[in-house]
Amino acid sequence: MSNSPDSLLGPADIRELAAALGVRPTKQRGQNFVIDANTVRRIVRTAEVRPDDVVVEVGPGLGSLTLALLETADRVTAVEIDDVLAAALPATVEARMPERADRFALVHSDAMHVDELPGPAPTALVANLPYNVAVPVLLHMLATFPSIDRTLVMVQAEVADRLAATPGSKVYGVPSVKANWYADVKRAGAIGRNVFWPAPNVDSGLVSLVRRTEPVATTASRAEVFAVVDAAFAQRRKTLRAALAGWAGSAAAAEAALVAAGVSPQARGEALTVEQFAKIAENRGAGQ
Q1: How many Å apart are CA 203 and CA 193, to the nearest integer?
Q2: 10-33 pLDDT tens trace
Q3: pTM of the model
């Protein structure tokens, strides 16, 4: 396995590749390419990627993180929506890490619509996610591929804070609860702006998600629980009795479900754990 720094992409390599492909990073896709080899190695270390891991990477861009993942993982499958980037990536892998090229697969698709991947089931998800789609893509991948055990995503700092927030925090909301349905979530470090090209005008953060060994214990389905979560935060300033009135059919029915779940009707969504939301979902229709 080649660990020579030359196989990874530095700032000059990234700009050269981009120029050759006529790629200009677009705001619309939230593209910021990582140009620092130390950063991608740090991401792979923080993600605890092992030699037997099958890693899925979303939005590989020009391949900086892809190459670092290939150094360590058993195999890497990259999902890229951009036509030009998707066409170029296999050649980059072949040129810079020929001995690992057979360990690499490319899926040219929108990650939001991917429901199967080639080869063995993925065990880890590692990605630099554009901030405009970070949360939906992350939740889609966790829902679609239950074999993904460990996830490390690099996202805008504000999104990282939301994902890792705990009940009672100002930024605790729908992403926090839904991510917690699947995994134990925590902040795993900060990433400076100068490791990206172009440098974004926001800071980035790493978020680690380790899949729960025991799923949330509930008789309600995920869709039923998520419906309560969505309703509770759609009007965050309201009490749950008021916020869940539409979901339950009336404020009185919402109150009955809350009381049956052992939750104060005067509480607000930001105070509740995912387990409490599940309890409320189970008690829809209580008292009828």
Answers
A1: 6
A2: 999 999 999 999 887 665 555 688
A3: 0.93
